[in-house]
């Protein structure tokens, strides 16, 4: 998901709508904005579909007034899958002592089922099936005096991955979980302040990037400025390495590094680790493009747009059902026949999850007359589900969970298939020594199966690590 918040500007919701539009790649099912106006109080609009279709009309935007607003773009990782109910669309708003709060969450709470049971037993009435709603109920029950203190209280009970943007009547609040699994950055626009999942959404409103919110940090922003707290026991950070590979936009800066440059470096690593004699390097657009450029530069094999993407389709992976995903590949990607015919083609993609995309593309490219097809993948085999906010399917549906690299190659019927090594990926994100196996520098659970936070809800429902 993507989260965004602004304080201290006229009509903050307009900025939030623009920010969410720049974060649309992080969630396309639904979006919502909550604002606060000194006279009219909290106002909210939550809608299915794209930001551009919902938060551009005057009739919606004129109901979202005031100098303070937050927003969320959703892609379902918990709660109702496939058919998101409107009640699961964030931000969530709760009225309780001290005027209440609205909150938008990116990530996944790994003990949400246990917390929900406990809260329901103690009388909480849940409005949604979303894990994020627990935080509001925990805050409402807290005995602390101020809302930021109640939030600290609540979040100390929560396990898993969370980047949060929240607001009260006068404060904008940002938090990252102690491991800093999901991103969150701070920016400045005029006299106002901005919180955003990614820096690309600061650019769109002309905000200056100030810094990342630190893992385990809570910032409370008022008209007096930014106050920083560290409410959690300090832990060694474990940022999501897959943000570098796929999730973030290539024009964002993560951990001081350009995502684009990291992806290009992944391509260079791949070319060194898994060279092959061929005529063309083609990306599977858009997610494979920077890595394909890196592969081409390092190998000297010409880069070509052998597959053309229809710009009016969203991200395939985020289409919730299998049927739509299967259709999706053809709706979204088409082979550029004139380039491909008779050629030995290296296809570069960011990841193989279920193998749907790669299988379809291989068929399309052979139909177009390619002489050979070689897959090069910019991440290690995805053998484990993510429980921290990226919607990977159940383990059985992951190609790499049941097959070796050779078996996957045979299954996809391609001439060769190679994935970047975990060490190669770490080098590409700037860890010259590769992965520190004793204390990994990132979360890489979907590749390694080493979960930095125990997925306790999952274990309870039968998941075996
Ligand atoms: Fe990111 Fe993978 Fe960890 Fe999920 S499991 S947070 S996708 S690295
Ligand atoms: Mg892709």
Automatic annotation (TrEMBL):
Known cofactor(s):
[4Fe-4S] cluster; Mg(2+)
* Record-annotated active site: 1
Q: Which GO terms describe its biological process?
A: 'de novo' IMP biosynthetic process; purine nucleobase biosynthetic process
Ordered alphabetically, the record's keywords are:
4Fe-4S, Glutamine amidotransferase, Glycosyltransferase, Iron, Iron-sulfur, Magnesium, Metal-binding, Purine biosynthesis, Transferase
Q: Which GO terms describe its molecular function?
A: 4 iron, 4 sulfur cluster binding; amidophosphoribosyltransferase activity; magnesium ion binding
* Residues involved in [4Fe-4S] cluster binding: 240, 386, 443, 446
Q: Where is the Glutamine amidotransferase type-2 domain?
A: 1-224
Which amino acid positions bind Mg(2+), per UniProt?
A: 287, 349-350
User: Under which pathway is this protein filed?
Assistant: Purine metabolism; IMP biosynthesis via de novo pathway; N(1)-(5-phospho-D-ribosyl)glycinamide from 5-phospho-alpha-D-ribose 1-diphosphate: step 1/2
> Which top-level enzyme class is recorded in the Swiss-Prot or TrEMBL entry?
transferase
Reaction(s) catalysed by this chain, per the record, are: 5-phospho-beta-D-ribosylamine + L-glutamate + diphosphate = 5-phospho-alpha-D-ribose 1-diphosphate + L-glutamine + H2O
The EC number(s) given in the record are 2.4.2.14
Q: Which branch of life, at top level?
A: Bacteria
Which InterPro entries does this entry report, sorted A to Z? GATase_2_dom, Ntn_hydrolases_N, PRTase-like, PRTase_dom, PurF, PurF_N
List the Pfam families hit by this protein, alphabetically: GATase_7 (PF13537)
- Kindly indicate whether the keyword Repeat belongs to this entry: no
- Which HAMAP family does this UniProt record tie to the protein? PurF (MF_01931)
Family, per the entry? In the C-terminal section; belongs to the purine/pyrimidine phosphoribosyltransferase family.
Tell me the protein's name: Amidophosphoribosyltransferase
- State the taxonomy lineage: Bacteria, Pseudomonadati, Pseudomonadota, Alphaproteobacteria, Rhodobacterales
């Amino acid at each position: 998901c993507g989260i965004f918040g602004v304080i201290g500007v006229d009509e903050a919701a307009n900025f939030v709508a623009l920010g969410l539009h720049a974060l649309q790649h992080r969630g396309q099912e639904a979006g919502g904005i909550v604002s606060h106006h000194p006279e009219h109080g909290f106002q909210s609009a939550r809608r299915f579909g794209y930001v551009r279709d919902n938060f551009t009309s005057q009739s919606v935007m004129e109901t979202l007034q005031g100098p303070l607003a937050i927003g969320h773009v959703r892609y379902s990782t918990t709660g109702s899958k496939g058919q998101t109910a409107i009640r699961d669309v964030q931000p969530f708003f709760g009225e309780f002592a001290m005027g209440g709060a609205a909150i938008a969450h990116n990530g996944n709470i790994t003990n949400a089922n246990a917390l929900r049971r406990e809260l329901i037993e103690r009388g909480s009435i849940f409005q949604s099936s979303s894990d994020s709603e627990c935080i509001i109920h925990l805050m409402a029950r807290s005995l602390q005096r101020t809302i930021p203190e109640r939030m600290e209280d609540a979040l100390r009970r929560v396990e898993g991955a969370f980047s949060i943007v929240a607001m009260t009547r006068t404060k904008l609040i940002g938090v990252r979980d102690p491991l800093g699994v999901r991103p969150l950055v701070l920016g400045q626009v005029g006299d106002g302040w901005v919180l955003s999942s990614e820096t690309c959404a600061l650019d769109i409103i002309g905000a200056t990037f100030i810094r990342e919110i630190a893992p385990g940090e809570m910032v409370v922003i008022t008209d007096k400025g930014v106050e920083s707290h560290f409410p959690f026991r300090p832990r060694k950070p474990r940022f999501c390495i897959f943000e570098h590979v796929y999730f973030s936009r290539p024009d964002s800066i993560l951990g001081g590094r350009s995502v684009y440059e990291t992806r290009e470096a992944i391509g260079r690593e791949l070319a060194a680790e898994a060279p092959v004699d061929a005529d063309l390097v083609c990306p599977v657009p858009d997610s494979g493009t920077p890595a394909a450029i890196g592969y081409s530069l390092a190998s000297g094999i010409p880069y070509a747009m052998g597959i053309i993407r229809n710009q009016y389709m969203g991200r395939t992976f985020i289409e919730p059902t299998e049927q739509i995903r299967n259709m999706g590949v053809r709706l979204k990607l088409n082979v550029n026949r004139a380039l491909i015919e008779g050629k030995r083609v290296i296809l570069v993609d960011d990841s193989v999850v279920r193998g749907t995309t790669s299988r379809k593309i291989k068929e399309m490219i052979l139909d177009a007359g390619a002489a050979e097809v070689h897959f090069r993948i910019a991440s290690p085999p995805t053998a484990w589900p993510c429980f921290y906010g990226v919607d990977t399917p159940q383990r059985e549906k992951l190609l790499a969970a049941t097959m070796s690299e050779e078996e996957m190659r045979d299954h996809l019927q391609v001439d060769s298939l190679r994935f970047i090594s975990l060490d190669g990926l770490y080098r590409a994100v700037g860890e010259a020594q590769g992965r520190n196996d004793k204390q990994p520098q990132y979360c890489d659970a979907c590749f390694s199966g080493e979960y930095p936070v125990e997925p306790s809800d999952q274990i309870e429902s039968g998941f075996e690590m």
